Amino acid sequence: MESNASAGRVVVGVDGSLSSQTALRWAMRYAGLIGGFVEAVGAWELPGMHGWSAPAVDADLDEEVARSGFAEELRSVVGDAPSVEVRESLVRGNPVAVLLAAAEGAEVLVVGSRGRGGFARALLGSVSQQCALHATCPVVIIRPDSKAGVGPTEAA
Question: How many whole angstroms separate alpha carbon 8 and alpha carbon 15?
Fold first, then answer.
């Protein structure tokens, strides 16, 4: 039987929201259950990329802020000694496009139900909705409540 290099790869969207943190914890527990690993994926965009005007921005500073926030979130949720392997990927681009590309061939894509999007995101549709509609693998959408923090086999 041919082995699949992405077998056990659990992709999870990370954006700094409570929902994202809960999704990351869920993904780590699930990866542990299936003997897989987690690929934590974050996306960042320059302010004004999809608006009517583009303010003067420093792309290097925005990337530095994004990398710092991404690393801090992973550190706070995963800790120094994660129970499963966690691979990190922070990509500049639209969150939906970045997550869909990362999830190609994955075991599952895990996203939070509410991210850091604002009014503009509401007009376009949520990231979780778009991922559920267009991903080529199963999608798990995690709500940021106490029951969502329970592992996949421990849910009440």
Answer: 22
